[in-house]
Please model this.
Amino acid sequence: MACLKEDPILRSNDIKEDSEETEPKDKVREEGGVREMVLPAGNSIHRSGSRPQLDLSGAAIQGNNFEERHPTILLPNQSDDISHLALDIGGSLIKLVYFSRHEDRSIDDKRKRSIKERLGVTNGNRRSYPILGGRLHFVKFETSKINECLDFINSKQLHRGGMDSRLWLSEAPPSDDVIIKATGGGAHKFADLFKERLGVSIDKEDEMDCLVAGANFLLKAIRHEAFTHMEGHKEFVQIDHNDLFPYLLVNIGSGVSMIKVDGDGKFQRVSGTNVGGGTYWGLGRLLTKCKSFDDLLELSQRGDNRTIDMLVGDIYGGMDYSKIGLSASTIASSFGKTISENKELEDYRPEDISLSLLRMISYNIGQISYLNALRFGLKRIFFGGFFIRGHAYTMDTISFAVQFWSNGDAQAMFLRHEGFLGALGAFMSYEKHGLDDLMVHQLVERFPMGAPYIGGRIHGPPLGDLNEKISWMEKFVQKGTEITAPVPMAPSGTTGLGGFEVPSSKGDTLRSDASALNIGVLHLVPTLEVFPLLADPKMYEPNTIDLADPSELEYWFTVLSEHLPDLVDKAVASEGGTDDAKRRGDAFARAFSAHLARLMEEPAAYGKLGLANLLELREECLREFHFVDAYRSIKQRENEASLAVLPDLLMEIDSMNEETRLLTLIEGVLAANIFDWGSRACVDLYHKGTIIEIYRMSRKKMQRPWRVDDFDIFEERMLGSEDKKPRPHKRALLFVDNSGADVILGMLPLARELLRRGTEVVLVANSLPALNDVTAMELPDIVAEAAKHCDILRRAAEAGGLLVDAMVNIQDGSKDSLSSVPLMVVENGCGSPCIDLRQVSSELAAAAKEADLIILEGMGRALHTNFNARFKCDALKLAMVKNQRLAEKLIKGNIYDCVCRYEPAP
Amino acid sequence: MELTSIALNFRIQVTARSLIKLVYFSRHEDRSIDDKRKRSIKERLGVTNGNRRSYPILGGRLHFVKFETSKINECLDFINSKQLHRGGMDSRLWLSEAPPSDDVIIKATGGGAHKFADLFKERLGVSIDKEDEMDCLVAGANFYLSLMLSVHLGSLEVEEDAIRHEAFTHMEGHKEFVQIDHNDLFPYLLVNIGSGVSMIKVDGDGKFQRVSGTNVGGGTYWGLGRLLTKCKSFDDLLELSQRGDNRTIDMLVGDIYGGMDYSKIGLSASTIASSFGKTISENKELEDYRPEDISLSLLRMISYNIGQISYLNALRFGLKRIFFGGFFIRGHAYTMDTISFAVQFWSNGDAQAMFLRHEGFLGALGAFMSYEKHGLDDLMVHQLVERFPMGAPYIGGRIHGPPLGDLNEKAIFHASKFTLFINKLGSGFGFLTDQPKTISGAVF
Model:
């Protein structure tokens, strides 16, 4: 981005405000009216991450003379320090954590502002300064290649607050004393180099402090940060914050530190050992001539330690020494077999030596750690540090040692961000880094396109723009091993896992250290909240389908792979089918396929993986290649077609009595849910008739009882029995699914019925496009169009502030006796076909506070996720199952079976 | 003299790992004459044989000999030449008159007891009776440790300085013998460092539990050392270490913090942060490092580790005393210092590392004691006198070839490290004889 040369006035339009106060600039946006809100949304996403988000409230230009060339802009409420970079400079690796701010993706449009006012949404911050939305990136370099690291920092201007802030920095006087927080032994050693090359001072932070701060942050802020690793199987563990302390933190660097952690900033180094990663690498180098730590680790994977180690079986003639619980394969003496007189170093396989060494050291660390945990009565031991590197064998060995010596009482756990504890802790040592109060629900981890290729590897400087990224992807596919270019960055620095030294040594197959875990970019979204109506947020698990089951994983990968060409076609068409769009489409297909392949290789690579995560990954991958809304035109077409038949449908419904009407409406929701571009089976249907034909056919087939049929209970609640009329719900949240018939012929009529009964209705839709799902940005248009033919909808929409033009009239006749309960639209905070109710938008959270009925509609939100979710209020889950496997698994039924699950408030 | 007591005479501990330790008993002639005068005195003073058993304790000597496992033939030759498996040369006399025993059984312990059973059968015609290793270790340690304390209970019949204390501490090159109250002996942690390491909590005679261990032991030192230094023997490797400087190999705290201590967590600049942490340098190969330094670094790494794990286990069971034994130590000052330092460091001085003079022979002695009626159980310390034969000053704790028989040969070399004399009760002077050049200790 050539920000520097841009006209400052243009930029000011892009500077977003965190404060809710209206400012004059908004006038400019309002002119476009409602209609304009839809399209610019895409453009804005295009630019996401490229604009600084500054808090301008209270900003002032100092100095009376406006002619002054470089007035100093003071930003009293700007929370961030200049530097958003922290380092952990270790003996072999430099770990870098940096923060890039990004624009709030959603647009602060009229709808949003009115909904915020109506619902009383605040920013939800308990602090005096706002949390910045942004991304936390994690990058590694080899210490011996420190220049690459310096170049990287320089190219991104990280020491100056990143490229994003160049804008205002250029106007500020050059800072003489930029300070970067760093930890690790090398922080001293390279201080001069940093001063010389970047002109920055290194502020050395205590290593132990950083480790603990980093670990505490990760364990609290990232769900499923920790996992166990037994016999090659990873299992992610969710740890209750209240039950986190005390724990033992074992950091395995060159040496090993064991730290008892009792709370934030409360810890004590209780032990350690000098036999650590440095010993493995040092001895390994002497014994095998390996050129790098990773080579040495890789060697071990093909090793057999029986030629090196003396096993219990060797001593006891192949028998166990069961009396004391030692099996024949237990190592009695590491390297105990290399004392043979007629064999020299050269006579042993380096692979075997590496493995034996690895076992010796891992086992030893596990044992000493356990003994220390025991000493202080600690049940949990977290292992981190560069030695582990997500290496399966290392983790297994450590786990085995802990398990063995503790008789299963203690558990070894590992951290996904294991190498970055120190760097993260250093980052947190900045005052006002804004991370302290972050809650787990405000963080979203994303995996950019480079992830599958690099795993947890070290790499050189990443590339910058989309074009480079696409060409890298093209070259990678064409040339395989020959490519030495670094892996590209996502647009405008969205990724920290940029590239790698030498791309996979095996051409287009993926990395060999398959078990290593990927670290994504942490997106900090301060506006996300936990959905307040969850009955038990701690126990809540959104995914109905856990992809830890390999057959499940394989099935969904096949489904997604088969769907991919169709999706690419749609995506390319949505961008006008240009050559550029085609190139991007191909690159997207490759990138997403690579993600899938990576996950097939190591299902735990991206952390705990549920179906929802996988579906979201696809959407994010599309956005990464600037496909803003692949189904845009399809959605528009279907919306128009459905809106055209809506008046007839409403008339038909209005002619029915109350009981028939309610059933028909529910049938309608289920029938209309057949229109789903995410379902292969349904896409085939589209070619067989018009929307209304399919809808009617589908509704006709709705033979009760449905596979899951709680309609009678729901009806009882809604209509009551004979003489007893129940109190209507105060407010209903309707989580809508697809565009077109689904929302217009299914959900809108149901919403209308609720409104008619005096229940406020909040339509909850996606913040960002996902497949053909309707978005919160599109809904007001749809509602406005529908309202043209329906008074109930019109008055409710007016009351809900959806009809901006009409609002003037409402205000004029505010005493109108026809005023209605409001129909509102809120965004859900996500851009996926599924929904994780632990991370929803603040406006949804606010809307939920007075709601006493939740209706979840569609497979993504009611089946794939939340099928088992329990709520504090009445909940209705409606979906047609458009997948044979899911039908069998979930409801023991068949494709096109229906689910109408009603669960009254407990 | 019953036949059973002859079988007692030969005990061997075979270890598949590096060393064969052999404990054998040789009777010596009772020089006192059971004359009339003596018998009458005994009767008059009410001296009985003092045995609560029906058979007498034999007077004789316990010998301790080591061989390298790889040179098992030397061991077999030695046994054969001394006819140890037949009760020793001393018993030739009556053996020749007894029918040749078809089934001589030798007690043995250690992993190699299985492995070499056939060889023993073939070469010596004896069967190996495998004794549990742990049982033997503990029995041996208890025996030695009890001895030590008995001496101080004092018997006027024995010269006070005739028996060394069994246990000693070793800090910064300084050895200090330790007196342990018998009533306060148990429980203790026994750490036997062979090829691997066993950690045994001992609560009493025959009462013990293997509570821990580590696979990083003597075998690791020797195995890695061989690969890295091309040393031909364990002892050579140990000797190398004495001229080593580990600063070229190990990454010290000072290396990381620019020569400064990381005092906040109590680490001095010379603390090893990472063993072998400096050999990751890109432009140096194995050949560029001194074998002396490598050996020392390895020794420190392993000793320190054993010390640490031992302490943690002692702590776990509230044991104040840790006795280290096993062939790895070999009386090597640096090894003992390192282990002691580790225990001292991690325990803040609460726990103490102690070593046993008979460190290598715990198992073998325990195997010896597993013979029924071995006659050692009830021995009182005043019945034991330790003598150092002429070879002692030359060989120290070393391994060696077959010991020599006659006086002339003895002038050149000697077999046993030392010999423990066992007195027949009542014959207070028997032990003084039969050792032409017996010395107490070191001067020769």
About this structure: Residues 168-249+289-356 of chain B form a domain with the Nucleotidyltransferase; domain 5 fold (CATH 3.30.420.40).
